[in-house]
Amino acid sequence: MTDEKARLSELREEIDSLDQQIMKLISARAACAQEVAHVKMAANPGQDVFFYRPEREAQVLRRIKEENPGPLPAEEMARLFREIMSACLALEKPMHIAFLGPLGTFTQAAALKHFGHSVISVPMPAIDEVFREVESGSAHYGVVPVENSTEGMVNHTLDMFMSSPLKICGEVQLRIHHHLMVSPKFKDQQITRIYSHQQSFAQCRQWLDSHRAGVERITVSSNAEAARRAAEEPGSAAIAGDMAAELYGMDLLASRIEDRPDNTTRFLIIGREEVEASGQDKSSILVSMRNKPGALYQLLEPFHREGISLTRIETRPSPSGTWAYVFYIDFEGHMEDALARKVLAEIDDEAVELKRLGSYPIGVL
Ligand SMILES: O=C(O)C(=O)C[C@]1(C(=O)O)C=C[C@@H](O)C=C1
C-alpha cells in the first residue's frame, strides 16, 4: 500500500467512527425532541399545540454560530443544525408551509432556508392566498416576500396585514441571484425572447441592455413560470434562480446577471400565534393617525424618547378611506419589553388604530 493509500484509509476509519458518534447523538437529540412534543401535548390537552417555536430555534442557531469552533464557517454549521432541527420538528409534527408559488420561486427557497427541508412546502398562486391558507388552518405557516433591496417594498404583502388577523412570526433574507437559462434541447437555437417576472427584469436591466439589447422581453407571473415556458419553447430563454433552473433542467447561459451584487429580498413568516422574546427581536405595527399637523412627529417621538430604534417606516394609502394615513413600522426589540409597552400604550392613546403585527426573532441565517 502506498503512503497516500495508508493515510487515507486511516483517516476514513476515523471519519466512519465520527459519523457513527454523530448519528447516535442526532438520534438522541431527535428522541429528546419527541419527548418535548409529549410534554407540550400533555400540558395542553385538547388545544392547539404550537410545536414550532421560532424564538427557541433562533436561540439554538445563534448559539451554534457563536460557539462554532471551525474549520467549517459558522454559517455552514448553522445550516447543518437548521436541517437537524427541521428533521426533529417533523418528528414532533410535520409542518405545512404555504408560500408564494409556483414551485421553484425564490419564496420557496426562502421557506426552505428558514424552516429546513423537512417541511411540506405548498405553493400558492398569490400572496393573499398564502394568507388565506394560513388563516384557515390548512397551512401551519406562510412565507411571503416583503421587500427587495433594489426594488423596494412588496406593497401587496403590507396591505394584507391591514385586514388579516395573522401575526408575523419571523423573517428571512435571501441573496437573489438571477441567471439567464435555456433548455438544453434548444441550446443551439438563436434566442428571440426572454421570459421573466417584472421585478427580475428590473433587477437585471443594465445587464440585459448591454448583453441582450435587441431581444424581446416578455413579463410573466413568476420567474419559475418563465423557466417552465422557456423549457418548452425553442428560441426562448428565461431569467430565474437556481431552484427554477434545477426544477426545469435548464442550462445556464450566464449566471449572476443581477445589476447589484448585494441584491437581497426579505421575506416574512406568517402564522396564527404570537412569538415569545428570543433576546434579539424585532416588532412590526400598523398605525393610522388622524390627519392633523404633527401627527407623524407624535407617532415617532415616543420611540426616540425611549431609545427604541426604528428599522423601517412605510406609508400606505388607507384601503377604506377612513384612515388618513397608515404607517407600517418596524422597530428593534419585543413588544412585551417594558419600554416598548410604554411607547405602544402612548401611541394607542393618540392613534385612530394601532395594530400589533407581531414580534419575532431577527433573522439568524
Ligand atoms: O424546544 C422545543 O420546543 C422543541 O420543540 C425542540 C426543537 C429542537 O429541535 O430543538 C424543535 C422544534 C422547535 O421549533 C424548537 C426546537
TrEMBL record:
Q: Which GO terms describe its cellular component?
A: cytoplasm
CDD domains (UniProt xref): ACT_CM-PDT, PBP2_PDT_1
ACT domain ranges (all copies): 284-359
Chief place of localization: cytoplasm
Keywords from UniProt, A to Z, are: Amino-acid biosynthesis, Aromatic amino acid biosynthesis, Coiled coil, Cytoplasm, Isomerase, Lyase, Multifunctional enzyme, Phenylalanine biosynthesis
Q: Which Gene3D superfamilies does the entry mention? A: 3.30.70.260, Chorismate mutase (1.20.59.10), Periplasmic binding protein-like II (3.40.190.10)
Q: Which residues form the Prephenate dehydratase domain?
A: 96-272
Report domain Chorismate mutase positions. Answer: 2-96
Coiled-coil stretches are: 1-28
Report the EC number(s), separated by commas if there are several.
Answer: 4.2.1.51, 5.4.99.5
Q: Where in the cell is it found?
A: Cytoplasm
Catalysed reaction, written as an equation? chorismate = prephenate; prephenate + H(+) = 3-phenylpyruvate + CO2 + H2O
| Site positions for Essential for prephenate dehydratase activity | 265
GO BP terms: chorismate metabolic process; L-phenylalanine biosynthetic process
**GO molecular function list:** chorismate mutase activity; prephenate dehydratase activity
Query: Which pathway does it operate in?
Result: Metabolic intermediate biosynthesis; prephenate biosynthesis; prephenate from chorismate: step 1/1; Amino-acid biosynthesis; L-phenylalanine biosynthesis; phenylpyruvate from prephenate: step 1/1
Pfam families on file: ACT, CM_2, PDT
Q: What is the documented function of this protein?
A: Catalyzes the Claisen rearrangement of chorismate to prephenate and the decarboxylation/dehydration of prephenate to phenylpyruvate.
Q: What is this protein called?
A: Bifunctional chorismate mutase/prephenate dehydratase
Q: What is the lineage of its organism?
A: Bacteria, Pseudomonadati, Pseudomonadota, Gammaproteobacteria, Pseudomonadales
Q: Which gene encodes it?
A: pheA
